[in-house]
Design brief:
Layout: H1 3-7, H2 10-23, E1 39-41, H3 68-92, H4 98-109, E2 115-117, E3 134-136, E4 142-145, H5 156-162, H6 183-189, E5 191-192, E6 204-205, H7 220-230, E7 249-255, H8 261-268, E8 281-282, E9 295-296, E10 301-305, H9 307-313, E11 346-348, E12 351-357, E13 378-379, E14 382-391, E15 394-395, H10 413-431, H11 440-451, H12 455-459, H13 468-482
Helix pairs in contact: 3-10, 10-11
Amino acid sequence: MSDLTRKVPLASRIATLVHTHFDGLPARSKPRIFPDGSREWIPMTGIVAVKASHIPCCQGLVLHDCHAEILAIRAFNYWLLNECHALSIEESNQVINLDDIIDAEHSHASRSPFIRRRKPTQPGAGTSVNWPPFEIQPDIKFYMYCTCAPCGDASMELCMAAQEDATPWQVTRHTDPSPALPGDLQEENLLDGRAHFSLLGVVRRKPARMDAESTRSKSCSDKLALRQVSSLLSCETSHLVAPTENAYLAGLVLPEDEISRVGCERSFGENGRMKALAGRSWPMNTDRDEGETGYRFRPFEILSVPVEEVEALWPFAKPKAVQSRSVLPSEQQSDSTNPTVVLKKSKPGNVSSIWTAASSLPHPCVMTLDTGSKTLPTLARSKTGLYETVINGVKQGNRLATPTARGASSLSRAKLWGLLRNILRSKECLHEHEKGQTRADDNDTSHSIKDASSYEEFKRTGGDFTDPLHIRLEAIHDAKRILKGWVPNTGDESWSLDVLVDPKKRKG
């Protein structure tokens, strides 16, 4: 790293890197400018969530939530699954003992700069928990950059400040947020975007508009808060990667005018709504070290980027209310000639662009053939691992009302589960010829995934307190109890991986 680069704040370097990659995307993946001069705006955080009534029709083939914080986490897990697969294949090509591979990776000679195999003598490995085989390299940290504050609790003060009338939207709400309430009363507890400004630190749902059909997708503030306990690892990735300290988000990068320190501290801080979880760990161990493998509440840092930097980098921002001003009676006749009171026409866009870098080690995979990498081989000098344009939760050119495997995003539930299944199948083959190696744990996991009759069964763990997935679910359950009013977004769990098979080829 040059001295000049070191002088640029980390947050600014992250923002520039993200925008450089976005600028390199094809036009069809960006907001549009229309012949009349009007343009689409979109936060680099997304704005689309699937309506609650559509969830039962998704069959695992539709993205429920296209806010980009959520897409970024799903894309991260897609990339990480492929990195694990690539490293497994690379190892299989080496005619050496698995212990030699582990020793080499822990002597800074790892084949992947991002992940490595866990060493049995590492902290956490001496416990009875059989953690997954891989972990993220200890010198890696992950940051998320957004051009707008996360929707929900962290942005409530910003919402209030932006309103001409700061009166909260009025909705009926039951006063007891207990999860033991009947479903209809639970539903009342899930607040719409900006309803009841006076109620802070509670779970809210998307969208923030009262004239739209409701969803059960929780706000990005709530989902990010939950990730401070469950880590960035998804259910699928948790089969392969252990929840070490750096599997958590290290920092959230935002424009400085999109940060309410009060809101962020309440929503994410160690003294905010999650403070009851401080010091807790899963599995329970009063002597746990901060860096030990396992789940715990790990608040992330909030980093800021100067407003002028973001304005120079991001031309697709929503027009700010401060760009207009009140018109005096004496000016009413000359409004048409006064450019200071006229804003460019704009409307929100509905396109979500997804891009990930290729894995650091090349590998073939059946589930990665339709990745868009042929359309966009490189982006900002980085090889493409996945490139998709998504509208209403499905790939551009497909319909939400009739989801198909062909139109499903690689980040959809079905595609990620299918990717994990294929990776574990290949891992079984890889370890068949390892002399003296027994991989019963891998085989048990693989069989449970392949034999699951539904997505619900796949996510449900039947293990005991030593099962990593059971421990993960316990941590999530405890975190949701602290987050007041968390209502499950159920209805899209009864399908199997048959949804990825062409209907004409399915067995009767």
